[in-house]
Design brief:
313 residues, alpha/beta, six-stranded mixed sheet, 44% helix
């Protein structure tokens, strides 16, 4: 891969374009990386407004995408904005295309995701499924690689995809050298589930269910189980399960596990407690069970989660 083309559309995200520029637009031949030719292509070679700030001039018209080893699409402020027919034709004629973040919607508009694995920012996954119903939307990955059609998760996931492309075409050593220059790991652990907001469940209108939820939340670190929730609510088990699931959108057992994982996340982010104590205080008992539950729900274990989010906190 030597020649990389970027399809510029109005509203292209400046961050995505900056990522592409850092990976393929900077001369790093002193580190054995590249050289690459980066083509910025727009219809009529017109300047393009970026989001949230800036404007960029194209180096070539859409004909510049011809012959590129890779054609990239960036996310846009409105992922569902129409894609011009001329841009669709250019994408369909490319040998290999890759989309950063919501750029997946541009590929969807060109029909390039049909029958392919694809992903995008976690907040847009449902929208992508509607925009590309024939695609195999992957909800917990940082990027997808379907040979000649690639997509990435949100925002920084585009950088993961770019490093993957460098690794794939130029080898692990070149990708590792580039990652060092970018001050990031060559490959991040886990998928994007660990970054998804876990909304606090709405408080049910039925007082018995709401008070039982409050009671349980105050006792997550104890050994309470579903039977204790049923007893507190003073209902039959069948009635409680039915009414609780309707109110919370999850079964009592599932809800209880998720609250414990959520509490463990908060402890890992905000305290220096050992993993064993986090497991105990969140009601998950042992470090082994905490790791198992976090891997099942978030795709990463507590140590990796703390490394990622404790620094941010």
């Amino acid at each position: 891969m030597r020649t990389v083309g970027v399809l510029l559309l109005p509203g292209s995200r400046s961050f995505d374009l900056a990522v592409i520029g850092e990976v393929w637009g900077v001369d790093r031949t002193d580190d054995g990386i590249g050289p690459f030719e980066l083509r910025l292509c727009s219809a009529g070679r017109a300047p393009v407004e970026l989001h949230p700030v800036g404007k960029i001039g194209a180096t070539q018209g859409l004909s510049g995408l011809k012959g590129c080893d890779l054609v990239l699409t960036t996310g846009r402020v409105d992922p569902l904005a129409p894609v011009p027919d001329s841009a669709i034709r250019a994408l369909r004629s490319a040998d290999r295309v890759a989309a950063l973040c919501s750029g997946a919607f541009t590929l969807a508009a060109a029909g390039l995701l049909d029958g392919r694995a694809a992903t995008t920012h976690w907040r847009l996954l449902d929208d992508l499924e509607r925009a590309a119903p024939a695609a195999d939307v992957q909800r917990d990955v940082l990027f997808t690689d379907d040979t000649d059609v690639l997509t990435s998760a949100g925002v920084v996931g585009g950088l993961d995809l770019c490093l993957h492309l460098v690794r794939k075409d130029h080898g692990a050593d070149v990708a590792a050298a580039l990652a060092k220059r970018l001050v990031m790991p060559p490959a991040r652990e886990g998928g994007q589930r660990q970054y998804v907001d876990m909304p606090v469940p709405p408080r049910p209108s039925r007082p018995g269910i709401a008070s039982t939820m409050d009671w349980a939340m105050a006792r997550l670190g104890t050994g309470i189980g579903v039977d204790d929730l049923v007893a507190h609510a003073g209902m039959s088990a069948r009635t409680f399960h039915r009414e609780f699931t309707a109110a919370a959108g999850a079964t009592p057992g599932r809800w209880l596990r998720m609250q414990r994982v959520r509490h463990a996340q908060r402890l890992l982010e905000a305290t220096e407690l050992p993993v064993e104590r986090v497991a105990q205080r969140s009601g998950l008992g042992t470090a082994a069970n905490l790791r198992r539950r976090m891997h099942a729900e978030l795709g990463v274990g507590p140590d990796s989660y703390r490394r990622t989010f404790r620094q941010s906190a």
